[in-house]
Design goal:
The chain is of the alpha/beta class and about 300 residues long. Helices cover about 35% and strands about 15% of the residues.
């Protein structure tokens, strides 16, 4: 007899509607944990035939080869944009999570070390902007990509990364298990919640949801929303989440890229958004791993689910 399960039709995590959950509280009783991720990933001119590049990320420029316009547009981030963003974060006294791809670590190790030296968390982020994990890959190929990404950060920073940000949130059905087996404490690929939650795997790890609709690539690049609306949209989200968080704590993850928000005509709107948020007393500004650690302390993995 088939047993009907509520929620998603897999066993990666338990179905958990918000009203049925235990109350989650953040540091100093604040209702909202706000964390940001700065993506650093290398865009190559030619994607290998056996790899997959996420559709839609090239915008209106088409798919000609060699796509020098997209290549150089992205490279602006590592040459100019990232330093503008790092200066802004320092001015606001914010530490964020930097998701660094393996190729970035190999080509620009000093940049990754600079981010670490400024107190930012360094997380693993695949290998290239043009190589997304998919189910087309064999298990051995996927393991190799994950290990390469983990080792690249470890070699550059001398610290094993604890977080995983998949390139364009790409996964196969086995990715969460492989990420857990590789020793990561959390993955941040699934935008399906407003709280961290446990993945029920043989080696359980935390899923830290991103709010992809407020991600700069999706909002500004793919959906072509006016950049001047960004501060207001983020503030509206924070207003609602702090209201909801007084009942049960919420988290908000915001993604940004050096080649987008690092531009001179966009940086002022990121600055405005941060100015509105850093003056609030009801928001806990944290890195991704700090949010995960706080969640794990408040809600340890249930003993009866441990394998």
């Amino acid at each position: 007899m088939t047993v009907l399960q509520r929620g998603m039709d897999h066993e990666l995590y338990a179905f958990s509607p918000m009203p049925a959950r235990k109350v989650l509280t953040w540091r100093d009783g604040k209702p909202l944990a706000l964390w940001m991720v700065l993506y650093l990933d290398y865009w190559e001119l030619e994607t290998p035939a056996d790899m997959h590049c996420a559709p839609g990320t090239q915008g209106m420029w088409g798919h000609q080869f060699p796509d020098l316009r997209t290549f150089s547009y992205r490279l602006y981030g590592e040459r100019i944009g990232v330093f503008r963003i790092l200066d802004l974060l320092a001015r606001h006294r914010l530490r964020v999570t930097v998701a660094a791809g393996a190729e970035i670590c190999r080509r620009y190790p000093d940049l990754v070390r600079l981010c670490a030296a400024q107190g930012h968390e360094i997380a693993a982020h695949g290998t290239h902007a043009t190589r997304m994990i998919t189910s087309r890959m064999s298990e051995a190929e996927e393991r190799a990509v994950i290990q390469q990404a983990r080792d690249a950060v470890t070699e550059v920073c001398g610290i094993v990364p604890r977080g995983w940000f998949g390139q364009d949130q790409g996964e196969s059905t086995r990715t969460p298990c492989l990420i857990a087996e590789a020793g990561f404490d959390y993955l941040a690929d699934w935008p399906n919640d407003e709280q961290p939650y446990w993945l029920t795997l043989p080696q359980p790890i935390v899923s830290l949801p991103l709010q992809t609709e407020l991600d700069d690539q999706q909002l500004l690049w793919m959906r072509q929303q006016p950049v001047w609306e960004y501060p207001g949209l983020v503030e509206q989200a924070v207003d609602q989440l702090t209201i909801d968080g007084r009942v049960n704590g919420r988290s908000l993850g915001l993604g940004m890229r050096s080649w987008l928000f690092g531009r001179p005509h966009r940086i002022r709107y990121l600055d405005e958004a941060l100015s509105r948020l850093t003056c609030r007393s009801d928001v806990w500004h944290a890195t991704a791993i700090e949010v995960v650690e706080a969640f794990r302390h408040a809600h340890p993995y249930p003993e009866d689910q441990a394998s």
